[in-house]
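INFO worker-7 received task bundle
INFO bundle size: 2
INFO processing item 0
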Amino acid sequence: MMRKLNNFCILLSLIYVHFKYKRDVHVSKSVHVVLLDEPLASNSCPLSQESIDLEFPIGFPQNLTFGRFRDQTGFPFITQDFWADIVDNRRTFFLRPKDNGFPSMDVLRKWIQSRPHPITLVFNNNHDRSWPENIENKAYELLLDEENLHQVFAGNVRNLSKGTKLKPIPIGFKWQWRSTLLFGEEKKILFQRYSEISISENESKKLFLVPNRTDTVWMRPMMNSNKRTQNYERNTDALKTTRVDISGILKKVLLSLLSLKKMVILLD
């Protein structure tokens, strides 16, 4: 019976974000996370034992620190911090590596083992780092091997071996430049700029269906372009571009896209 119940919990953990963000076409078709209403959560999966929970700090696995702009979600666009609002803290939990209170792998594994059903973890922050950051440290393998851990979703995930529980999540647009806190910077100005390009699924679709649109995508490392940057081969224009120049390049691209958008409207 317990195995059937656990399997049911896992099945529920794969429900689309659509159930909460049903208007958010930018998110609902690209993200799979645990998301359930509280009454359903209470009736479908067993609660953890209070005596066991007392063995861990209050708020475990992590007490998140929020910035001054908690009310600016960026909806309907994906942000680095909206994950905090869509986990249910019963079968899905959001953690921020590099932030205060992030637990050690040993303690986190012990806590996962104590849960009454399989859980899913979401790792993400505003640091330009992969997860796991140090693949030489095999602690992450022990974490992913936990039977009571269903999956781990993370931003900037490493390409590990097939069959791993580690899955990537979309990180969305650039929203913050000076702060790495959750909701650490104002989103209003950038929201207006992004909205000028597309605010709905149909508008985005038109942009992608523009005739002669190139499918080429240039990629570059996420590290800062300064003396601390790790050495890598700079053999394309994208890899030669420093971060300080990206804002100006994006501005030109946005103006070009706006012109294309107007052209599509005229053609319609």
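INFO item 0 finished
INFO processing item 1
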Amino acid sequence: GDSKYGPYVEYLNDESTAQIPSSWTSDAQRLLLELLDHEDHFPPKKPVHWLQKGRQRCMRFTEPPDEFFYNAVLLIIQRSDDALMIPAYDSYNHRNGKWTNTKTKCVDKEYHETVAIQTIQPGEQIYLSYNFCEECPGREHEYGTAEILRDYGFVESFPQRWHFMEEDWHFNVDEDDDGNLVLTWDDGEWRPDESDEDEMEAARNWFQMQIGRLRSAKNVVWNKYYNHLLDGSIPQYQWDIIWEFVDA
């Protein structure tokens, strides 16, 4: 008879496996890496590493990895909750702040349950959080907008969470009712010391340098790679996501 997993497998087979940067075209990956300029510690770390990591893990098998293996790796990264592939759950979208209207509880090998934490009206979007969740406390100080791009292939809407691990800076960026951006630093050690003017000046200079670099890239790197968009070696949606991330 038909497998009870059949409908879910058919659903997964219809999903794109070219969603995250690790699966993008080589030209799109080069564009992203050039913009990130990792010598300046711009997040995320290892932005295109997932397939390489998958190859390393499968070295213990006798058969070399094939396209099926790589597609499986990409689907697990994009759609699983840790090691679990859960029908319907993977169709919930991420958004933090006032938008988060569910929470998930899970006990290994016992249950995985998502419940509403506020009234959800008919037709209203169901949102969960990929980094501010009870079952993922380790992501609070190491996981944000850049890492979500790396692992899920989209730029999160406001509020956004940014981590600059080399500098130990963590902060949130939100948009108020008038469309103004509001930056909120984490308390304690995850921010420049306001009482240290030299440290504050160094932080301002670093951010100004990065903003200037990215603005320059909008002209220089855009023109350098634009022909790759025209000839199809960078698909339009990958191009759009990259520049959406730069704008963020």
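INFO item 1 finished
INFO post-check item 1: The longest strand covers residues 169-175.
INFO post-check item 1: The beta strands are 93-94, 102-107, 111-116, 127-128, 160-164, 169-175, 181-185.
INFO worker-7 idle
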